[in-house]
Fold:
Amino acid sequence: MRNLAIAMSNVTHLQCAACGVQYPAGKLYNLCEKCGKPLLVHYDLERASRTLTRESLKSRVSSMWRYREVMPVSSDADIVTLGEGWTPLLRADRLGRVLGMNQLYIKDESLNPTQSFKARGMSAAVSMAKELGVQKVAAPSAGNAAGALAAYAARAGMEAHLFMPRDTPRANVVECIELGAHVTLMDGLITDCGAEVARRKDAEGWFDVSTLKEPYRVEGKKTLGYELAEAFGWSLPDVIIYPTGGGTGLIGMWKAFDEMEQMGWIGSDRPRMVTVQSEGCAPIVTAFEKGERFADMFSNAATVASGLRVPKAIGDFLILDAIRASGGSAVAVSDKALLAAVKEIGSLEGVFVAPEGGACLPALRKLIEREEVQLDERVVLFNTGAGVKYVEAFEQD
Ligand SMILES: *Cc1c(COP(=O)(O)O)cnc(C)c1O
Structure:
């Protein structure tokens, strides 16, 4: 239908991250038809790098679409944007001093449209859905993904059908309704919501944009990796601490580092990737400690950091592979500690972080204690969302 436009994308094919089966570009996909694992997008990076140079970025748009040539959309007219990405990388000197560190940073993703980094993934996914003719999208969400999908679907003129646990933070639910989405609250966890989408999508004509069941969200999230490298003058930090639910951001950054190396922008050094989860839902930490490549379902998952309440991540092996290949680690922290950290970061740095972002601080303290992080290293904490969306969590305190 839109074959002319497709010629403008640098995507060569999609490939299953587990079994390696290849799929042609320019089509809608969910999981690998052979093995049920996530597909990843591959590019002709030599071609991309002819126009996408480090120099060229100086005059580019201040959003994640500055990395246009390594994004999957063919036609510029199909890009659905609210100005996502290109968020501040803040020095955290006052917090650093408390810890005895002098190169501590916060990547503040709360400045994205809909106040979380889910905007990056949904901008990419909805743009591709638009390009490929989708009219109705659906997703399960712990909260922020739903808000982001509601916003981008509205902007694209699509219907959004969102399924969230009943105890999702109220702000997320109100936001989705005001953005015109169809919202269903369910008794259960995000995995139950995902099963509901899967059960109904064919009959309803919905395209399922669940994390990693859809290959383009990770392409949006990978821009986190490009932005970090660009902000640090084409070097990478020593350590990245990432609050992990489905793991899209971590998987995306890991992919971005490889792409940048292939384009000759960075060398082979990688940051140590650290997953932080809540003790109330820590499937990746458990698998990491047991030396396993796939994570078991974490039973009775419960945490105020709703973005981390993912008891089973479909990309578990990609997260665990990246952590191990990087020499990184996986750490669980208590809800009490992550909530206390929100106040500590807020009062020292002026950033009202989401509970998920707060989790990075007690994780860093544990790593320092275990001597897995040295005080003079360059460390980035990810604040993935906005504290203001979680007022109930702080009022309970
Ligand atoms: C979704 C979410 C996360 C987890 O992100 P993944 O890429 O799924 O690991 C962390 N923090 C916040 C605020 C989120 O909304």
